[in-house]
Amino acid sequence: MIIAIEGIDGAGKNTLVRAIRERVDADVLAFPRYDTSAPAQLVQEALHGRMGDLTDSAYAMATLFALDRHGARAELERYVDSADIVLLDRYVASNAAYSAARLRDDAVMDWVHQLEFERLGLPVPDLQVLLATEPATAAQRARSREALDATRERDRYERDADLQQRTYDAYLRLAEQGWAGRWLVTTDADVILQEIAHITQGL
């Protein structure tokens, strides 16, 4: 079973993943994979201003994010139609939401779907969870995290409050239309665990 935990920067994805793992035996994979993936490392360099004008292209950045996930495709495929669970800290919907927010055009959501699920063959998640954390709250958390940990310097996307708000709104639209499958919009781990149990029974 593939469960994607989605949300803007500072929404509390790591905290939620830990809360779920206390109750369910699950593996965890976070995207971007900065420690192991060359495309993810290029993204990181770009977001911190060290790749020239690369970040100016929403499509270029979206492609690098997609290639990072493609590098993990074999790892992800073993969870398809399986009782084993993997919790993904961000997945394909993050690319759709941030790209739509950057371009101010939801048409790119279909492009991301075609690129990642169809062309690159990534498995569709069994459940996508949007953390319904208000952008102002998420932004304060991101600032506090940066102040407490020098290694958590906010990147270009994280510092852009307007982008974060537009991304949150784009996520809500994805959830409303059931983009790429089933969605929950919540911050309650118990609600998510109930849905995981429901899906497990259907496998």
From TrEMBL:
Q: Does the keyword Transferase apply?
A: yes
Q: Which reactions fall under this protein's catalytic activity?
A: dTMP + ATP = dTDP + ADP
Q: Which top EC class applies here?
A: transferase
The protein's matches in Pfam families, at most eight in alphabetical order, are given as:
Thymidylate_kin
Coiled-coil parts of chain: none
Keyword presence, DNA-binding: no
Which keywords are on file for this protein? ATP-binding, Kinase, Nucleotide biosynthesis, Nucleotide-binding, Transferase
Q: Where is the Thymidylate kinase-like domain?
A: 5-179
Per UniProt, what is one GO molecular function of this protein? dTMP kinase activity
Read off the Gene3D superfamilies from this record: P-loop containing nucleotide triphosphate hydrolases
EC number of the protein: 2.7.4.9
Function comment? Phosphorylation of dTMP to form dTDP in both de novo and salvage pathways of dTTP synthesis.
Q: Which PANTHER family match?
A: THYMIDYLATE KINASE, UMP-CMP KINASE 2, MITOCHONDRIAL
Similarity-based family: Belongs to the thymidylate kinase family.
In its UniProt entry, what is this protein called? Thymidylate kinase
Provenance organism: Corynebacterium nasicanis
Q: What is the lineage of its organism?
A: Bacteria, Bacillati, Actinomycetota, Actinomycetes, Mycobacteriales
